[in-house]
Every structure is written in C-alpha cells, then in structure tokens.
Amino acid sequence: MRIVVTHVFVDDQEKALKFYTEVMGFIKKTDIPLGESRWLTVVSPEDMNGTELLLEPDSHPAVGQYRQAIVADGIPSTMFGVSDVQKEYDRLSALGVRFTQPPVKMGPVTTAVLDDTCGNLIQIAQK
Prior knowledge:
This protein is 26% helix and 41% strand. The protein has three helices and eight strands; from the N terminus they run E-H-E-E-E-H-E-H-E-E-E. The strands form two sheets. Strands 1-4-3-2 form a four-stranded mixed β-sheet, with helices on one face. A four-stranded mixed β-sheet has the order 5-8-7-6. The longest helix has 12 residues, at 61-72. The model has no long low-confidence stretch (mean pLDDT 97).
C-alpha cells in the first residue's frame, strides 16, 4: 500500500495552481473539469509519478471552520520535504511568500512554516 493522492483545501483553484507551480515549483499533473470545480493535482518535478497533491475546493461546509481553527493554532495542513530549509526560505521569501515561522532547528530536523495564500499553512522540513 502507498499514498497516491493527498490534498489541501483551497479557496481558489486557479490561484492555488499558480502558487503551487510558479512559486513552490510543483508541476501540474492532472486537470479534469468537474462542473464548477476541477480534479486538479500537482506533483514534484523530482518524482513525476509520485504522490499527487490535490488542490481541492473548500466548498464543503465543514472546511471553513476546520481551516480557521488549525490556522489560528498555527498548525500546518501538510509538510513538504526539502534538502535545505534555509535555501528554500530565502528563495520563497524573495518571491514574497509570507512565513509564520522562520527556519527552526529541532534536533535532527529543521522546519519553517509558510502561508500558501489559499487558506493554509504549509510546513517545509529538512532531515
């Protein structure tokens, strides 16, 4: 068994696609119209056949309260692995990305947390 697709809820799929491809560096994998929304996924350019990230519309009534609560508590929706957190922090900051937590070393792991502009906090981590 393996993880094939995971997701983040987004308030605007087109804005999310732009952020996750143009800023974060992912590549669009799947884009299938589904009425008012799309099955829209991105993947890492380092693993085109790896786990897909679904940019899922936040239209379900429970999503708003859930996201507000976890963002208020500073809890990231998901985590992406990077080889150098400081380098990604510098690159993304230069692109205007707002971080809620700068790089912090916690034992063998360094993390930083950013705002994806679509309603989520995202953690980047380096082992």
